[in-house]
C-alpha cells in the first residue's frame, strides 16, 4: 500500500540547503564507519580529513538550495536539467575550492542536489525520487565540461574535461551503472533500503544495509568485483548477527572495519546513501514515507 501523504508545504529551498549540509555533516561525524572518513580519521582515504569533509558540507548548502530553487521556478524538463547540471558543476568547483582540490562529496552532491530538487517540487519522498529519476534520465547538455580549473588547488579526481571519472572507467570495465544508474532508478537504496532502516534501527544499520547491497563504483574502482563482494559480505554478516550492538555483530563489524582499512576499501557510495537518507528523514515527516509504486521503481521486487 502506498502511503504518500503531503503533510505540509515543501520546505523552502534555503531550508533544504541547510538540511542537506547538516545531513552531510552528520554523516561525516557518525562514527565508526568502515573505510569512510569519520571522527577517527580518514578511513581508507589518505587525502581526506574530517575538518575537510565538514568544510565541504558547508560549501554545498548553497548549490543544493539552488537546485531546489530551480525546481520550484522552472517546469520539469530539459531546461531544468540543463540548469541543474550547471548548478552541480558549479557546486563541484565550490567543493574543490573548499578542500584544496579533493573530491570529498561529488556523489553526495549529485544525490542530495537531485533529491532536494524533487522535494522542492513535490514535497514527498516518492515524489522526490520520481522527480530525481526523471531528471537524471534526461541528457545533460553541459556534461563533460570541466569542474576543475578554478585555481582550487590540486585536482585529485578525474572529473575535469578530457579525463574520465572513476565511475566512467568502472562502467566501461564492469558495466556497473553507478551513481547515474541509482538516480535513474529513483535512488532505491536511499528510499527503500537506508531510510526505513535508519528510522527503525539507526544510522549504522542504515549504512550497513546499503553496503550489503549497493554496487558501489568507489569499491569497484579501487578493488574490483572481489573487493566489492568482500565489503558486501562483511556488511551483511554484521546485520545477520543482529547489528553492531550485539557481541557477534560488534566482532563482525570490527573485522569489516579492519578489512576496509587494510585494503583501502572505501564504500563512498554508501556514505552518500546514508547522507541522503538522513536528509530525507529530516526534510519530510515520517507520515509521508512511501512504498513507491512500480512505475518509479520498475525493479522494486529486488528491494523487499
Ligand atoms: C552522475 C555523477 C555522479 C557522475 O558520475 P560518475 O560515476 O562519472 O562519477 P564519479 O566516479 O566521479 O563519482 C561517483 C560517486 O557516486 C557515488 N557512488 C558510487 N557508486 C554509487 C552507486 N552505486 N550508487 C550511488 N552512488 C554511488 C560515490 O560517492 C562516487 O564517488 C555526477 O557527479 C554528475 O554527472 N555531475 C554533473 C553535474 C550534475 O548534473 N549535477 C546535478 C545534481 S547537483
Ligand atoms: N564519510 C565519507 N568519507 C569518504 N567519502 C565519502 C564519505 N561520505 C560520502 N563519501 C563519498 O565518497 C566519494 C569519495 O570518492 P572516491 O572514493 O572515489 O574518492 P577519490 O579520492 O575520488 O578516489 P581515490 O581515492 O580512489 O582516488 C565522494 O564522492 C563522496 O560523495
TrEMBL record:
Chemical reaction(s) catalysed: 3'-dephospho-CoA + ATP = 2'-(5''-triphospho-alpha-D-ribosyl)-3'-dephospho-CoA + adenine
Keyword Transmembrane carried by entry: yes
Annotated region (Disordered), positions in chain: 143-168
GO biological process: prosthetic group biosynthetic process
Sorted UniProt keywords: ATP-binding, Membrane, Nucleotide-binding, Transferase, Transmembrane, Transmembrane helix
Molecular function, one GO term: ATP binding
InterPro entries linked: CitG
EC nos: 2.4.2.52
Domain of life per record: Bacteria
Name of the protein this chain belongs to: triphosphoribosyl-dephospho-CoA synthase
Transmembrane segments: 109-138
